[in-house]
Amino acid sequence: DTDEFILPTGANKTRGRFELAFFTIGGCCMTGAAFGALNGLRLGLKETQNMAWSKPRNVQILNMVTRQGALWANTLGSLALLYSAFGVIIEKTRGAEDDLNTIAAGTLTGMLYKSTG
């Protein structure tokens, strides 16, 4: 019933914020691509509903799927990158790993993302 992992001396059993950043960024990119593709399919079908099923309609739908997929993947990936970078920087600066780092990273990400508006 005990863990049978071999860990280097002094290593902890949990992943740090920096190691989790890669999973977060990749997961957000994949989620954004999937959501964007579904949204592009919905928009493509809506915009081409008056067209008969043909190659031009299929191409237009495919263009919408790829355009929306890339747009959403880029947006969510960028947000995840900002959030992860702020989280790692705050953790290294404070020397503590707690919920305050998460709140500060999320706040700074939102402020920077919306600062252009």
From TrEMBL:
The chain crosses the membrane at residues 20-41, 71-90. GO terms for cellular component: TIM23 mitochondrial import inner membrane translocase complex. It is found in: Membrane. One of its GO terms (biological process) is protein import into mitochondrial matrix. Pfam families: Tim17 (PF02466). This is TIM23 translocase. Keywords: Membrane, Transmembrane, Transmembrane helix. It is a multi-pass membrane protein. The gene is Timm23. Its main location: membrane. It comes from the Eukaryota. GO terms for molecular function: protein transmembrane transporter activity. InterPro entries: Tim23-like.
